[in-house]
Specification:
Helix content: 55-70%
Radius of gyration: 29 Å
Structural class: mainly alpha
Oligomer: single chain
Order of helices and strands: HHHHHHHHHHHHHHHHHHHHHHHHHHH
Number of helices: 27
Number of strands: 0
């Protein structure tokens, strides 16, 4: 895409002169449409406002028919810019698209089609318009077109089609941006509005979208990056109400990144969203343990000492403080261990070499079909951190020693091949613990311990 095309803006597009009369002569628009366009085009918001107030649905019909029937890129971009301008001035004008008089119009189809073709300008405006229009539909339950049931035999694009198509396009933009500066900003802006709907949360999780948000959670300094961070945090907060998304958040770097941001942010709106997200996640799964490990009790103390004006934020901080205190009391050593493994942050904390820990908790490894053990094996295969590899090998040897069926279970999970590869690792700590693990696997715990001594 040429850079001048990529950086096209509405002001440049709206300076064009579109040959409406020629389009009427060639029957691409009607005489009525031409009259409406003459009254509206090149006029100020002051002049346009009463036109939209009195006859808004008619203008929407004209705009949609042009986008449906005229392929010329200059004209398509121009009409998209007109609609965008109309909605930017007053977002509630999106309701005009759902007027009863437009029940038989396929209001979504042109924008959904243009989302996947044409210039970046066309795609950006289509995504923004679609987001506003689909969010303004009056009935958000069921497969309906224009927010209403339709008896028409003609296939009309439904709101579900739109939401599915939008989520797909937005995820692609987050993975492989079409525009170097705008794709991420536009996508997050749209998602922040769309994720209010449960059906969108579901589609977004299914599209593996949660992991695309996590890298965007990072400290911000410029006005633009602060807004992007705020809208990203808004997306994460909305997802924290949806159980399947919470599972994704649990195995990502979301919590450490949110903690890092909240420690250094002075923007109240950002801090508020992160604290409310923590509040939602506190009682879910192992999040409480993870928060304690990340030093969140100290962070909350520090935040409480600052002068915030938002009552919701102050209430959430108090709630979080109490919840974290309860978690510290309840947190068992195995919860801490499991958290370490699930995050892949293995280190030589005391429990790894504590015989009592292994004796007391060995049966806990059987939970969820040996989930913790399986994650340990994944670390052996995927981690590039020598410390994590060494600790994982040692823990595997401990499991073999303390579980009655340890050797059989570890053999069944195909651990031997993974550990054998690490016996040639360049790091001495890794090779030493890989050797111990193999000895216990082949010789049994008693002989391996004798050899180690």
């Amino acid at each position: 895409m040429p850079i001048d095309q990529a950086d096209l803006n509405s002001d440049q597009v709206l300076r064009r002169d579109i040959p409406w009369e020629t389009y009427m002569t060639s029957k691409l628009i009607t005489g009525t449409a031409l009259q409406l366009l003459r009254r509206y085009d090149k006029k100020s918001e002051h002049d346009r406002a009463p036109l939209l107030e009195n006859d808004g649905p008619s203008y929407v019909r004209v705009f949609i028919s042009i986008l449906r029937d005229i392929q010329k890129e200059d004209t398509v971009e121009y009409v998209l810019a007109l609609i965008d301008e109309m909605l930017t001035e007053k977002p509630n004008r999106a309701k005009l698209f759902h007027d009863k008089s437009l029940a038989d119009e396929d209001i979504y189809e042109p924008f959904l089609r243009l989302l996947w073709k044409g210039s970046w300008f066309t795609q950006e405006k289509s995504s923004k318009i679609l987001t506003l229009v689909v969010s303004a539909r009056p009935n958000k339950n069921g497969l309906t077109a224009n927010g209403k049931a339709t008896d028409s035999k003609k296939k009309i694009t439904t709101s579900d089609d739109v939401l599915k198509g939008l989520v797909e396009w937005l995820c692609i933009q987050l993975k492989k941006p079409s525009h170097p500066n705008r794709s991420i900003l536009v996508s997050i802006n749209c998602l922040a509005a769309l994720l209010k709907e449960p059906v969108v949360r579901s589609s977004f999780v299914q599209a593996d979208g949660v992991k695309l948000l996590v890298p965007l959670i990072s400290p911000a300094s410029t006005q633009q990056s602060i807004q992007l961070l705020y809208e990203t945090c808004l997306c994460v907060w909305l997802l924290s109400y949806y159980e399947p998304a919470i599972e994704y958040l649990a195995t990502s770097r979301a919590l450490p990144r949110l903690s890092e941001v909240v420690k250094g942010s002075t923007k109240e709106k950002v801090v508020r969203l992160i604290v409310l997200t923590f509040k939602n996640l506190l009682s879910k799964g192992s999040f409480g343990a993870q928060m304690v490990d990340l030093g969140l009790p100290q962070i909350v103390q520090s935040l409480k000492a600052q002068a915030w004006s938002d009552e919701d934020l102050l209430d959430a901080l108090n709630h979080l403080e109490e919840g974290l205190k309860d978690n510290i009391k309840k947190l068992s050593s195995f919860d801490k261990y499991k958290q370490e493994v699930l995050l892949g942050h293995l280190d030589w904390s005391p429990m790894h070499k504590d015989p009592n820990f292994w004796r007391d908790n060995i049966t806990n490894f059987e939970e969820n079909d040996f989930q913790t053990l399986r994650v340990l094996l994944t670390i052996l295969e995927t981690s590039s951190d020598p410390r994590a590899l060494a600790v994982a090998c040692f823990d595997l040897s401990q499991f073999i020693q303390y579980h009655p069926a340890g050797r059989v279970i570890v053999t069944d999970l195909k651990a031997k091949e993974r550990v054998m590869k690490l016996m040639n690792h360049e790091n001495a700590e890794v090779t030493k613990n890989a050797l111990l693990c193999i000895q216990r696997l082949f010789l049994g715990a008693k002989y391996a311990s004798f050899l180690q001594a």
